[in-house]
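Hey all, sorry for the wall of text incoming. These are the three entities for the joint prediction.
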Amino acid sequence: MVLAGAGSGKTRVIVHRIAHLIRELGVKPDRILAVTFTNKAAREMKERITSLLDDTSAARIAIGTFHSVCARILRREHRSLKLTSNFTIVTESEQHARVKRAVDTLNIPPDRMAPRQIVTRISNAKNRFQEPEKMLESAGFDLMQKWTARVYEIYQAQLEQDHALDFDDLIVKTVRLLEDNPLVRDAYQERYRYILVDEYQDTNHAQYRLISILSRRYRNVMVVGDDDQSIYRWRGAEISNILNFERDFPGARTVKLEQNYRSTQAILTTAAAMMENNRRRTGKKLVAVRSGGEKVMQVTLGSDREEAEFLAKELTGLHAREHREWSDFGILFRTNAQSRLIEESCLVAQIPFRVIGNTGFFNRKEVKDLFAYIRLALNPLDSASCLRILNTPRRGIGAATREMLMEKTGDRPMFRVLESLVEDRVFPGHKIGRIADFVRGVLEMEKITRTTDVPAFVRLMIERFGYREQFETEDTPESTASLEIIEEFVSAAEEFHRRTGDTLDKFCDYLALNQEQSSDRPGDVEEDQNTVSLLTLHNAKGLEFPVVFITGLEEGLCPCYRSLSDLTEDDLEEERRIVYVGMTRAMQKLFLLSAQRRFRAGKQTDSKPSRFLMELPEKTLERINLQGARTRRARPVSFRDSDAPAVKMSHPFSGNDFRRGDRVVHKRWGTGTVIDLKGRGPEAKITVSFDRAGRKKLLLGPSRLFKMT
DNA sequence: TTGGTTCTCATTTTT
DNA sequence: TGAGAACCAA
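and here's what came out:
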């Protein structure tokens, strides 16, 4: 076990050990398994190993996330699991849909049970290998838990019928496979003789079991982690995995890495002082290699808007005065909702930026639909996918017909039932044509899943089912957006094909397991372009920036809680770790921002400064109060007054004062000129000719269009 | 069945 | 604020 403090070269250790194993000890690359927490980390690790060794041996090492590694094993071993090799991987959004349907069938008073909560409870149970029956037994008089257990039972039964696995199943079923099946177990224990796990502090119980069983024979495991950076408890991560490592793997040796190569001493001292307030930790002494450094700035702003304006001004200032690259800056926030204002203010100030993390691409209806089509073609047993696209595009199958169909389906595969119903001409004459055509379409597509490359398949599919036509017939901003998403989906397929050349089923896995997908706006910014990064504190893990801004350090937001009473001690410690992760991303400059008013959940709220700010030592800190919007007259921040332009955001739709000829800037399309305008208020529709992207019709409301000042 | 509207309600992080 | 459900009219 390597206990590696922030910035101590964690990943480097893993990469170099792998190189050492192969080069010095002559270990065959395919006997090494390296598990990371995110796909991005896996890619990075692969790259770094490639640069140390050669392409071919690097390619033979099994590197991936727990989920992707398990998916690969399960596909290979599907026979032992009574699964088709084409089993579906259920994404989170679909997990919700499935749970909701299960809740509906149970006649549970819906107000008592938030599907979101049920999902987490089910997930927790799964990760502890608890079956629905066990859960029901142990629920006792806990009514909510009882309901959850019954939902769980239906949910799980339906997954099995559909030959579908959710994220938790991927791990849990792999563990079961290895436990129940000596031959398979032997094979994988042999195969993965050397196991390396990154971010061990974020593993959950099932993942621990997986590592434990795989390593049982050769006992060659190296885990790397930092208990102070454990920030995924809500997802089942158990910090005890790292705290109990020496007990769980007798004879283990622990190495501590306590030299920090990233941050200045000032930054580190500040972060460390805050962490002193946590109790459950191993205790490391991180020492900065870079002594001294500028003081950490703690800035208080009047409102969230002022915070955003301050950011833009500060970025511009540092860019001009200190000749910083835009990519030197990381702006961190606790919740995704916070990024909106910041994006807007960067837009107005013409600062190139990029939002790292979930883009919502996968939440788009179009993406879910197309994904469901592909999955049904690959796995016609997947009734959930069938149900999703049954009436998309419209085929005249509404609620009543759907009910009827579901009734007849029972626990058989819906698509098969549909086939036979068409055969028996159960549907009324005026509908049967379209329904039969749908069935034929799926069957046709099913035939060519193996023989057609991914982009061709996707295009053919869109064509065959008339998925595009439904949007082409109208010319509204919404339909334009839909068409764009469809295009984006096609490009994703092309991109996948170009990079991997893999088959359709691999594309499905890729879509399900790579939901991260970073966004590049405005325009088409390439991956490593020079942009400011906007990201959540969680997404910041593993990254570093010369200058870091942590925003929204306020009670309720960071630490994040709904009501003080449900903030447990453990929750609070995790929140502190989350902030700690953020602070330790900074190499040279660290800004801690808080606002006194913030627009939250549709309301203006007063907020108090985060308690974490009170835990910081004064000697490495400079506190500045800039409340009252007069950022321009403000005392010295990092730049003495400004050659930075004043950034003042115009309210999105307050000024419905767009006129023909106005120069505007759009989140996605960049700069352009207004050429037409219809309607008033947030409903107004506007036509803009963009300099690079051409003419677009936009809905003024959600389009995020700003007048350039 | 579909399209449109209004209403309400909850707001964390993501493989 | 924005998503989803519930409701209503054609």
